């Protein structure tokens, strides 16, 4: 399948209107940081020979080989991202965003990266899908995560048991082990409001639909199963089966001084452009430096949706796009053709350094 810039001209004007409106007044006092390192801990794609490269405002370092060549980074369907941010010459703050599908992959990759669970200052769970929280139990079982480490979750819905499908009777897709979080002494912050996380980054809170994006979520939840009905939306709390709308999903973002926002949509079930627009509205910062994560453009999303997202990203004109996990080949191929100098492949173990050099 071939793509070029002219493939998107028909969508360009609508995309520009949808994405170029100025951000509304900030709802959160968002700090500015001077440098940001993002390391892919878990993703679908692993390549021990991924090349290094450097530009004026980004340095990409491929996975550091394990001392023992018998060991390798584990790639799996899931996502986890480690963010280290700093202001001035201060000690960097470390946030783990999502936990991948299995404890084995998460712990293996953290070990190869030389990251101790005890070095994590804060954690964010983007949403209640197993491929994003499955590794959490294993991380907590190490007993190395510091007690009182904050874990941000976007709403009670994240804890409801889920089904792998949108019809009653579909197979289970698991549920977060809330008692394990309590036993580990983690400070659980469950809120649909935006929050500053560990003084350096912020969550978007609930993400409204403000563009044409309306992704279909391929799961359902069971109200009352592992979650408190009374804390769910009134329209859902008395039901026993609900097709997911991912209203509890969070984006995470950083305000990089002199560059703009780095927005992370770990799976973007509310739409990656909607996620960016929410980060702009929350922070009052319009400029977008980088868009990172899974953009949820695999089936049941369509080719047309993927191409429309490419057009909207062109209108936003970020400096870099780092698609991974559920972004899909149609999006990746089209975005690479339309914006070849902006798209950088997400690779397990790779490090992406933004901002001031150490």
From TrEMBL:
Task: Please provide the record's keywords in A-Z order.
Answer: Signal
Pfam families per the record?
A: Lactamase_B
Q: What domain of life is recorded for the organism?
A: Bacteria
Cleaved signal peptide residues: 1-25
CDD domains from the xrefs?
DHPS-like_MBL-fold
PROSITE patterns for the chain: TAT
Q: What is the lineage of its organism?
A: Bacteria, Pseudomonadati, Pseudomonadota, Alphaproteobacteria, Sphingomonadales
Q: Which PANTHER family match?
A: METALLO-BETA-LACTAMASE SUPERFAMILY PROTEIN (PTHR13754), METALLO-BETA-LACTAMASE SUPERFAMILY PROTEIN (AFU_ORTHOLOGUE AFUA_3G07630) (PTHR13754:SF13)
List, alphabetically, the SUPFAM superfamilies matched. Metallo-hydrolase/oxidoreductase
Q: Output this protein's name.
A: MBL fold metallo-hydrolase
Task: Using the record's annotation, list all stretches that form the Metallo-beta-lactamase domain.
Answer: 94-148
InterPro entries assigned: DHPS-like_MBL-fold, Metallo-B-lactamas, Metallo-beta-lactamase_dom, RibonucZ/Hydroxyglut_hydro, TAT_signal
């Amino acid at each position: 399948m071939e793509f070029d810039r002219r493939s998107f001209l028909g969508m360009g004007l609508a995309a520009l209107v949808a994405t170029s409106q100025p951000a509304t007044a900030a709802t959160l006092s968002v700090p500015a940081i001077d440098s940001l390192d993002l390391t892919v801990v878990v993703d679908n794609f692993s390549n021990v020979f991924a090349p290094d490269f450097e530009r004026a405002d980004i340095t990409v370092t491929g996975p550091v080989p394990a001392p023992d060549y018998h060991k390798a980074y584990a790639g799996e369907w899931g996502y986890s991202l480690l963010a280290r941010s700093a202001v001035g010459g201060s000690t960097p703050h470390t946030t783990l965003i999502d936990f991948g599908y299995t404890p084995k992959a998460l712990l293996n990759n953290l070990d190869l990266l030389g990251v101790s669970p005890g070095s994590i200052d804060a954690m964010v769970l983007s949403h209640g899908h197993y491929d994003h929280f499955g590794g959490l139990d294993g991380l907590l079982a190490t007993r190395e995560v510091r007690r009182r480490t904050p874990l941000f979750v976007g709403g009670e819905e994240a804890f409801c048991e889920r089904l792998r499908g949108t019809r009653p009777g579909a197979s289970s897709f698991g549920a977060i082990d809330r008692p394990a979080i309590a036993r580990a002494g983690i400070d659980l912050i469950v809120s649909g409001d935006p929050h500053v996380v560990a003084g350096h980054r912020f969550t978007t809170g609930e993400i409204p639909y403000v563009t044409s994006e309306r992704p279909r979520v391929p799961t359902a939840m069971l109200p009352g199963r592992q979650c408190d009905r009374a804390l769910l939306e009134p329209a859902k709390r008395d039901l026993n089966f609900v097709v997911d709308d991912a209203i509890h999903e969070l984006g995470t973002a950083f305000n990089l001084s002199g560059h703009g926002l780095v927005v992370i949509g770990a799976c973007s079930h509310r739409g990656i452009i909607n996620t960016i627009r929410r980060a702009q509205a929350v922070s009052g910062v319009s400029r977008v430096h980088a868009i990172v994560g899974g953009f949820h453009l695999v089936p049941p999303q369509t080719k047309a949706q993927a191409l429309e997202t490419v057009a909207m990203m062109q209108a936003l004109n970020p400096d870099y796009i780092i698609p991974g996990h559920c972004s899909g080949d149609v999006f990746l191929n089209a975005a690479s053709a339309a914006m070849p100098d902006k798209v950088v492949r997400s690779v397990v173990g790779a490090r992406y350094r933004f901002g001031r050099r150490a």
